[in-house]
Write a structure and sequence with these properties.
Blueprint lengths: L2 H10 L13 H28 L4 H4 L15 H5 L5 H15 L21 H11 L11 H19 L10 H11 L6 E4 L6 H12 L8 E6 L2 H13 L5 E5 L9 E2 L2 E2 L4 E4 L10 H5 L17 H10 L7 E7 L9 H9 L3 E9 L8 E8 L9 E7 L4 E3 L2 E3 L2 H13 L7 E5 H6 L22 H28 L1
Parallel strand pairs: 1-2, 1-6, 2-3, 6-7, 8-10
Antiparallel strand pairs: 4-5, 7-9, 8-9, 10-13, 11-12
Helix pairs in contact: 1-7, 2-10, 7-10, 8-9, 8-14
Length: 488
């Protein structure tokens, strides 16, 4: 199959689900089914190869060492395909048995979809899904890792487009992912972490970038944590589909239960890339006040916005020698009054290396402008006491309700970041002292005068103040009007 044929084939299964379940739930069923088909076909391929090498020794061909994953007897794709009644139960039992047979690698990877709920998925619908995927062999010879990995990424993008508001939880704009990866420039042997990894795109891109450059990508150590069960499973499947095996993705709440620990402390990483969920209100602020891992290094964020809880978690997880991080946020994190004290403490610690203002519509289903906040432990000597601001708000291409960065935009931003110097109207290196004098605001428009202030995304307290001022003016003008009318 060509890449286009593969993508059409993979997406075709979704047509059997339309009208039965919401588009936002497609991923719960399509991804596990696809992964089940893949490992079954690869198992058959490995079995045939072992059979050929052993001159037809059936016992040898079934040995564990000849197979990447174990598929117990009666749980293969072809076994489930023969079932016509209670198909969902057969699927569920087969997937659980495979997880149990591969506890170190596949435990929980098929998620918790309700396969046995016939009100959602009838035997006929599931049979159609199985028959659709049975049309092609998804073994390594027919569909290599790279091709299937690209197809899997295509599916993630399609689900994001189709499901709208649910997209942000597992999908980050891929062009922004590329920019973030290039800026962090992970090297072979380094550790890379994403504390809110979604479907694993940021982590995966680090490995794929090294691979594309002909560097040893298998020595890269990838770590992630994700709160949503099916999304964390999708991330793990994503790694396997791309042929990546050295990774650790755990499920859990990063703020309340950070799971990547070392000697009872947060594990330290060379590179952290993140697109955390923004403005979370339902989080345990009280526990963070006395955080056992010491993550409140700059203070405790307000209950209504946990952004700086994530940012402090990131900073606390960085390697003390060469740790560097990049996070994608809405612009509000740069100037909100409610976080001024924490922002001041962050700037005073001299870990902020660069702030990049990006254009609107880079977040799914949101017109908000995005920004990249880059921090680094042990900044280069010439960067100490300074912060680079880049105005890339116009370096974006709009396409309907979503925007993306073209390669020329990515390279322009990357070059400017590496050069770390003033470019008229585009970038400016600013002393930390000057930033502190401006109430510790990292708002790009304060330092690059050509940034249109009308494009700023104001914090809630600023909006409320503007509303109050406007209300007072309206009240005063109404009183003046009534006075004039009464006089007449």
């Amino acid at each position: 199959m060509t890449q286009q044929q593969l993508e059409k084939y993979l997406w075709g299964a979704a047509t059997y689900l339309r009208g039965h379940i919401d588009a936002g739930d497609y991923k719960q069923y399509i991804f596990p089914l696809l992964f089940f088909k893949r490992i079954s076909d690869v198992y058959d391929e490995e079995y045939a190869l072992a059979l050929e090498e052993s001159d037809g020794d059936l016992e040898f061909a079934a040995f564990e060492e000849n197979h990447r994953f174990q598929i117990p007897k009666g749980t293969h794709w072809n076994d489930v395909r023969e079932v016509t009644v209670n198909v969902g139960m057969a699927l569920q039992e087969a997937m659980r048995a495979i997880e149990k047979a591969n506890p170190e690698t596949l435990f929980g990877i098929f998620g918790d979809a309700s396969w046995t709920n016939k009100d959602r998925l009838s035997d006929e619908t599931l049979t159609n899904l199985i028959e659709h995927y049975s049309q092609q062999k998804l073994n390594m010879q027919n569909v290599p890792d790279d091709q299937l990995g690209n197809g899997y990424e295509y599916l993630i993008k399609q689900f994001a487009d189709d499901s709208g508001h649910t997209a942000a939880e597992f999908y980050t704009n891929r062009t922004v992912v590329r920019l973030m990866t290039l800026m962090m420039d992970p090297q072979p042997g380094e550790s890379v972490y994403d504390p809110t990894c979604g479907s694993g795109g940021l982590l995966l891109n680090c490995a794929l970038q090294l691979k594309a450059n002909g560097q040893e990508y298998r020595s890269l150590k990838l770590y992630g944590q994700e709160i949503n069960l099916i999304t964390s499973a999708i991330a793990r499947m994503n790694m396997f589909m791309h042929g990546i095996e050295e990774f650790q993705i755990v499920r859990g709440d990063t703020l309340s239960e950070p799971s990547l620990l070392e000697n009872d402390e947060l594990k330290k990483f060379n590179v952290i890339l993140a697109n955390p969920p923004y403005s979370i209100k339902a989080w345990d602020r009280k526990a963070f006040e006395s955080d056992p891992y010491g993550r409140n290094i700059w203070g405790t964020p307000p209950q209504g916005c946990a952004d700086y809880a994530f940012q402090q978690h990131i900073q606390k997880s960085l390697d003390l020698q060469n740790g560097r991080s990049i996070s994608l946020w809405p612009h509000g994190i740069l100037f909100r009054d409610s976080e001024a004290a924490m922002r001041r403490a962050m700037i005073e610690s001299d870990v902020v290396e660069c702030v990049i203002g990006l254009g609107p519509n880079l977040f799914y289903n949101s017109p908000m402008e995005a920004c990249l906040l880059v921090t680094k432990n042990n900044k280069a000597e010439e960067q100490k006491g300074k912060v680079l601001f880049i105005n890339a708000v116009k370096e974006v291409r709009q396409d309907k309700n979503i925007a993306f960065l073209e390669e020329q935009h990515i390279q322009k931003i990357l070059y400017t970041y590496k050069a770390y110097e003033d470019v008229e109207g585009f970038s400016k290196v600013v002393d930390v002292e000057e930033i502190l004098q401006k109430e510790a605001s990292l708002n790009v428009s304060l330092y690059l005068s050509n940034v249109e202030r009308s494009t700023e995304v104001k914090a809630l307290d600023e909006v409320v103040e503007d509303w109050k001022t406007a209300s007072e003016k309206l009240k005063q003008s109404m009183e003046d009007l009534f006075s004039v009318l009464e006089a007449k």
